[in-house]
């Protein structure tokens, strides 16, 4: 494709964070925005000077001037909106998870294979500054042989929009699945998951999911490694946390326990009190085009005329937003597969979907579908 890539954004809650990133990216053009609530749509579009506006997603994807759509709509809409965009001939960047059913993941993978269009899942954790730091340590061999990986995503969703009530924890698991698989480029082969505790009775009925916490072990394909992930969404006391820990023979990295703290790096062979040290993690802005580097730091987009907006610009999700947008644009320009692509996104998403099935079956080992493996996918 040729520059600039013409982007439409659907969903302007969290999605509004990306408007100024695309507006300043040298190879992108923010062409249109879409939100069902017209008043909110106009308020945000006016603030950023976006003229082309839609309240209907179907109209957005029919726009002949768009090359690609960045989807930030509610979770239940991810699959139908992705499918509609691909069928309309648009490339897709979609926030997580890919879908809430295995069959919808399959449909998206098959559509990408049939159309030749690009799909990327916008998994923030694998572009966060903390993960990029660990990935750099791994690439340089500083971690030694990897022995174990674990991650968590804990959040209190009480009071969130109604569709979240009682949502199965593992149906929204990519924030902790992604880093465990992305570090070594692994695929999940099968999972075993247990549910623990019980959410309030009035929250159970919608999804028939009683568990307060779900804990899953992932067997990595063609590897001696396994990973552990755990998720909670309701009735569990914990500050918001996305985390990733990796244990190697030489060094280990542990994500902060409390937001705002620095992560810990452990080094083998030192006297016991000297093994752990707090480390400052860079933001890797130098990997980005200069006009969007500032978006790796929270608070950089603070123009007076946008002071009334209800979201905070810059630095969200570990500074990942400009890295995600740039990866998508760069992949389209180069005609290469983005990371994570459709098959990888399906593998990561289906880990959680299979894990919930396993938990309902008392921990039964559950294999990942063949289409989520590189040899069987797009």
User: Which CATH top level class of the largest domain fits?
Assistant: Alpha Beta
How many distinct domains? 2
Shape summary: globular
Largest sheet: 9 strands, mixed
- The residue-averaged pLDDT reads 94
> DSSP strand (E) fraction?
15-25%
Terminal residue distance: 20 Å
**Computed structural class:** alpha/beta
Helix content: 25-40%
Give the count of helical stretches.
11
Task: Give Rg in angstroms.
Answer: 20 Å
**Low-pLDDT runs:** 300-313
How many E-type strands? 15
| CATH topology heading of the largest domain | Dihydrodipicolinate Reductase, domain 2
Question: Overview of this structure, please?
Answer:
- The chain is an alpha/beta fold.
- It has two domains: 5-124 and 287-339, NAD(P)-binding Rossmann-like Domain (Rossmann fold); 126-283 and 346-376, 2-Layer Sandwich (Dihydrodipicolinate Reductase, domain 2).
- The chain is built from eleven helices and 15 strands.
- The protein has helices at 19-24, 38-48, 57-61, 75-87, 102-115, 129-139, 174-182, 201-204, 316-319, 321-334, 342-360, and strands at 5-10, 28-34, 52-54, 68-71, 91-95, 119-122, 146-154, 188-196, 213-220, 226-232, 241-248, 251-254, 264-267, 276-278, 366-367.
- It has a nine-stranded mixed sheet with strand order 14-13-12-11-7-10-9-8-15, covered by helices on one side. The protein has a six-stranded parallel sheet with strand order 3-2-1-4-5-6, with helices on both faces.
- Strand 2 (28-34), helix 2 (38-48) and strand 3 form a beta-alpha-beta unit.
- Helix 5 packs antiparallel against helix 11 (342-360) and helix 7 (174-182) packs across helix 11 (342-360).
- The longest helix has 19 residues, at 342-360.
- It is globular, with a radius of gyration of 20 Å.
